[in-house]
Amino acid sequence: MNIYKHLSVQKASPAIGAYLTGVDLNNINDPAIYEEIRKAVHEFGVVFLHKQPLEDKNFVALGREFGSLESSHPVFGVTDAFKEIQPIVYDPREPITTQEWHTDNTYNEFPSRYTFLRSVDIPPLGGDTLWASNAAIYDELGEPLQKALEQLWARHDLFYRMRETAYLERAGKPEGAAANFLKFRTDHPVVIQHPVTGRKQIFVNRHFTTCIHHMTDQVSFRLLHLLFDMVKLPEFQCRLIWEKDMVVIWDNWATQHYATLDYGKYPRTMTRMVGESALRPSPVDGAKMYDSGVEWQSRGLLRKA
To answer: Which domains does the chain have, with CATH numbers?
Structure first.
């Protein structure tokens, strides 16, 4: 573990996650503190900070220390005062479709780099969130499978997931609303090299990844679900029991997460920010990549969305 001069760091599990203490996010006057928070996010994948009753302006200031922040989302809205802040509100009367392991927004050509989540109103029990390390999963695969996966591309598609869960119908969206979501699809390497740490890691998730190109649907399905099932193993995970006024920051490319829905009719309110990326996920250095999936659609080797 690296030495941290301005923070106290306690690992959450062997594979992923750390608790950071000794810092008040409402009162940071030394840029070196932000630098150490960024370093911890890259080292551990996700970091947890207790007892941080952040004002919105300081929440946004924290996010901007990681780069530009997104100011829109195709599903979640934004607050009036700060376009960077997205309210994540659970209403028991509304459908929810995020009970799958996923990496945020991988259907974009430039997937979100970081996610910042703040607890506002939480259930008295339940509602834990789990994170898994994409690099730890890759390390477990063994060299023959690692080398094979490093050559492949996968499709990520928001509307495919919406159709699979009948989200638009259950949410009461008007006829024709689907057209607004069709553009949210792209291809990424199945294995990427992290732009900061250099670690190799898988980059597929159950929520948005629909197929691997250059193979039939059956083979693609089996291979993807092998990777999806590995995310469920506790050896690659850490689990957070939320408290009010917690702040969590995670490296979106390096992790997947799962929000448990076990708190019945109790509402839950969080606020979220998402860090933009100026980079596309990159293949492993020196990997002999096949073509991306565009030309394969016409040959029947791309699952239809």
So the answer is: 8-299 (3.60.130.10)
